[in-house]
Design a protein that fits this description.
- The chain is about 30% helix and about 35% strand.
- It is globular, with a radius of gyration of 16 Å.
- The protein starts with a strand and ends in a 13-residue tail after the last strand.
- It contains four helices and seven strands, in the order βααβββαβαββ.
- Helix 1 (about 15-25) crosses helix 2 (about 40-50).
- Strands 1-2-3-4-5-7-6 form a seven-stranded mixed sheet.
């Protein structure tokens, strides 16, 4: 299967919502509990793009397999050079290298911009696949926040991982217009 990673378009949002909804209803990758509709997902994509950040999809043979985007890590101005990554795959797509393709393309897109750090906030300390994916992409473990979420009848940790983008903290950030 030949997979293409490309910028997400408005027409992709129904498929993106269909990929995301099972993660909301059955998983811990997100702490949302009610799946947002297509219109809300489109509004979220528009907000990401308005910040100049990437929103990507992976597709093969006309089918969306997963998506990824970078969002602001925190809203305060001093965090403006740090982004948080999010990656979601279709239910039957794990273990096929699609997450690696999406994360690599996301890192490359962010390194082309003014961002210097990427943070992964991984839901569930038992999410070995996401932790390994991020480690292979150069993220290092920075900590675990224990039992910070309660979903599907249990307490859930979040794992924090981080990697430098471009020059990282080796030099001051590029001034923005």
């Amino acid at each position: 299967m030949s997979v293409t990673v490309r910028p997400a378009g408005e027409a992709d949002m129904a498929a993106v919502q269909a990929i995301y909804a099972p993660h909301v209803l059955k998983g811990f990758a997100t702490f949302e509990e009610v799946p947002p509709g297509v219109e809300e997902m489109a509004a979220r994509r528009a907000a990401i793009l308005a910040q100049g950040l990437p929103y990507l999809v992976a597709e093969a043979e006309g089918r969306l397999l997963g998506y990824a985007y970078a969002g602001a890590y925190r809203p305060r101005p001093a965090y403006r050079n740090t982004v948080e990554d999010s990656i979601y795959l279709g239910e039957d797509m794990a273990g096929r290298g699609i997450g690696r393709l999406l994360l690599s393309a996301l890192i490359e897109a962010c390194e082309a911009g003014p961002w210097r750090q990427m943070v992964a906030v991984i839901g569930d300390s038992g999410n070995a696949a996401s932790i390994a994916l991020h480690a292979r992409a150069g993220f290092r473990m920075t900590g675990t926040l224990e039992a910070v979420g309660f979903k599907l009848g249990r307490w859930v940790d979040t794992v924090l991982m981080q990697r430098a983008l471009g020059a990282g903290s080796g030099s001051p950030p590029v001034p923005r217009p």
